[in-house]
Design goal:
Elements: E1 2-6, H1 16-32, E2 39-45, H2 51-56, H3 58-64, E3 73-79, E4 95-99, H4 106-119, H5 138-162, E5 171-175, H6 184-201, H7 207-211, H8 222-228, E6 235-241, H9 256-279, H10 284-298, E7 305-311, E8 314-315, H11 325-331, E9 336-342, H12 350-368, E10 374-381, H13 387-392, H14 394-400, E11 409-415, E12 431-435, E13 438-439, H15 453-477, E14 483-490, H16 500-517, H17 523-527, E15 533-534, H18 538-548, E16 551-562, H19 577-600, H20 605-619, E17 626-636
Parallel strand pairs: 1-2, 1-12, 2-3, 4-8, 4-9, 9-10, 10-11
Antiparallel strand pairs: 5-7, 6-7, 13-15, 14-17, 16-17
Helix pairs in contact: 4-5, 6-10, 9-10, 15-18, 16-20, 19-20
Keywords: Magnesium, Metal-binding, Methyltransferase, Transferase
GO biological process, one term: methylation
Organism: Ananas comosus
Length: about 650
């Protein structure tokens, strides 16, 4: 199943929908005596939303989940407005995934470190190797190789579970032409090692710190990759200059000092976290300054190159994106594609992979004379990654894209480790989506008894237009037979000028009028303020769905929900009207504060909602008030 919480994934309640869906599905499966499905949950809000806080709370969320109600679930952040397209048509699950190197995790660093300590008395070797070198004994090389095989094998197993039958991916990572203890890859780390040794001799780094430090990276040979992936597709090999800004194919280094700086900055972007966590942040600037000088001297001998590999599996970083793409040009041009950049979606280069894939696909489609496919990108990194910065740069990224190479694309953030499961098996496309209201931008502060018919009609027409567009977009995204459940505030009758819904905004309006009379709010500000919300009747919703002809209504239901979110009782008695007034005011403030503060300014908020709470408390002396909630279960036609 796929669940999408559209437009309300912010604040402490962002994971509440996910929790409710998980528990409900688990309960139903237990009653039916069947295993639970895998559930993928998309949390959608505008790009300015704080996704970081949501993703960092996932660990606590998992710990709190009732083990008896646990079902497999996968969470992704989806920046954007649900009034536009959020997913590719029918979410075709064939995959293009990106990964930039096979890295052993911190636990494996510890294992390697312990092994070196245990065997150093029996084996003669140079102390202080941070990577595999000429003096490294065979058992050290074998240990690195075995860790690569284990990690890469796990990666392939998880990817096999996630991809649909016939799905494809391309893998690119740094490799070795032959034995890793020789060649340019060895020098890459030896030059960093030399800088560390110099700092040890000058007393800037503790010798014990250096001896216990290992670079947890392994660059496999083509044969080693083949051994793990016996059933893999075509394998290829290419070279790329150490300097990421050097595109030339000759062996001449134009400016060895500048190239040394470029390479050092590039490696610092990758290695700084592990170095600073082991040695401390104080040595980082000095270390990479020395490293840049070492590289510059090494490049006087000529260019040094990475050895890259790709197979019909995953796309890599920066310039390594381009060499494997030609294979995709011939094989991966369906109507819709899914691309996942796994494990490296942080920093300013995050959207570079997206850009390169879009341009390459657009070029190939133009040459083939066919329309481009829709592309969905999953940007994956650990939950502590800064996803906010990425999502907030999307508007700039879209503006920057060349219109000639434009391909429809949709971006989601995927928090988690690619050494574990990230997607449901075969990406099952049937959908369950949650929506909480349709926003408008016209009318009074709210529809009331004195509102003329044209105002009511204007609100109603805006709802019909917006809801119709919403259904059109969801129809494009859902697979044939896909289903979704819509829930939103509604009205018991078509006339919105009566009933409790009128009072929820009327009492806020009363507080604003009082503040106008006391000179705390400008009269003109109040008269041009509109609450952009419409609560349709059951008949109005049904009319739009049937008129569109895109969905069948499987079930529709209406129920009442107390204004006070903490009051679960079914009677009409309000136990504490003052407390309930405060609860309701806080709930409405969470929804309406951005709108009110942007119009009136933040200075009135505390006073306004204090008065609003008192107004609600007095209103509740008459008895409980309820929201009218509409629920529609829809199934896609065709």
């Amino acid at each position: 199943m796929v669940a999408a919480d559209l437009g309300c994934s912010s604040g402490p309640n962002a994971l509440l929908v996910a929790s409710e869906v998980i528990e409900t599905v688990a309960d139903q499966c237990r009653k039916a005596g069947r295993p639970p499905p895998d559930l993928q949950v998309f949390l959608n809000d505008l790009p300015a939303n704080d996704f970081n806080n949501i993703f960092r709370s996932l660990e606590l969320f998992e710990q709190k989940m009732d083990k008896k109600k646990f079902i497999p679930y996968y969470i992704a952040g989806l920046p954007g407005s649900f009034y536009g397209r959020l997913f590719p048509p029918q979410s075709v699950p064939e995959g293009l995934k990106s990964k930039t190197g096979t890295v052993l995790d911190q636990g494996n660093i510890h294992i390697i470190s312990l092994s070196l300590k245990k065997k150093k008395k029996k084996k003669k070797k140079k102390k202080g190797n941070i990577h595999i070198g000429e003096t490294s004994p065979p058992w050290v090389v074998n240990l690195y190789a075995q860790e690569f095989k284990n990690g890469f094998s796990n990666f392939l197993n998880f990817s096999h579970e996630e991809l649909a039958p016939g799905g494809q991916m391309v893998l690119t990572f740094l490799g070795s032409e032959e034995n890793m203890s020789i060649g340019d890859v060895r020098y890459f780390w030896i030059l960093l090692q030399d800088a560390l040794h110099d700092m040890v001799s000058e007393g800037l780094v503790a010798r014990e710190k250096l001896y216990s430090f290992k670079v947890p990276v392994y660059a496999p040979t083509m044969e080693e990759v083949k051994e793990v992936n016996q059933k893999g597709g075509l394998l290829d090999f290419f070279e790329s200059s150490w300097d990421p800004f050097d595109d030339s194919c000759d062996d001449f280094v134009l400016d060895n000092v500048q190239s040394g700086t470029n390479v050092a900055k590039f490696i610092r972007g990758v290695a700084e976290p592990i170095i600073s966590s082991h040695f401390g942040e104080g040595i980082v600037d000095e270390l990479f300054s020395r490293y840049a000088n070492n590289i510059a001297r090494h490049l006087l001998k000529g260019k040094a190159k990475y050895h890259g590999k790709h197979t019909a599996w995953l796309v890599g970083e920066e310039k390594q994106v381009m060499p494997p793409i030609p294979g995709l040009k011939r094989t991966l041009l369906p109507k819709s594609m899914v691309a996942a950049d796994l494990g490296c979606s942080s920093g300013p280069n995050t959207l570079l992979v997206v850009s390169e894939v879009i341009k390459t696909v657009a070029d190939q489609c133009k040459k083939a004379g066919r329309p481009p496919p829709d592309l969905q990108f999953f940007l994956n990194d650990l939950p502590t990654n800064d996803f906010n910065n990425i999502f907030r740069s999307l508007e700039w990224f879209e503006q920057k894209m060349d219109e000639k190479t434009f391909v429809p694309f949709y971006i989601a953030g995927l928090p988690g480790s690619f050494y574990g499961r990230l997607f449901p098996p075969q990406s099952i496309p049937e959908g369950l989506k949650s929506k909480t209201g349709t926003l408008l931008d016209e009318g009074n502060i709210y529809i009331g008894e004195t509102s003329p018919p044209w105002v009511v009609n204007l609100y109603a027409q805006e709802f019909k237009n917006g809801f119709s567009n919403f259904l059109n977009f969801r129809h494009e995204e859902l697979a044939s037979g896909g289903q979704m459940v819509l829930t939103f505030l509604g009205s018991e009758e078509k006339n919105l000028s009566i009933g409790d819904q009128r009072y929820i905004w009327g009492l806020l309006q009363d507080a604003l009028h009082d503040m106008v009379s006391e000179g705390l709010v400008e009269r003109e500000k109040l008269y041009c303020f509109k609450v952009p919300m419409y609560t349709p009747s059951m008949a109005e919703v049904k009319e739009v769905i049937q008129k569109g002809g895109l969905f069948d209504i499987s079930r529709m239901q209406y129920f009442g929900s107390n204004w006070d979110p903490f009051d679960d009782s079914c009677d009409d008695f309000v136990l504490d009207n003052l407390q309930s007034g405060a609860n309701v005011a806080k709930c409405i403030r969470a929804v309406a504060e951005p709108l009110i503060s942007s119009h009136f300014g933040e200075g009135i908020l505390d006073e306004l909602f204090s008065r609003y709470a008192n107004n609600i408390a007095r209103h509740l002396l008459k008895g409980k008030a309820k929201y009218h909630v509409l629920v529609f279960a829809l199934k896609r036609r065709g």
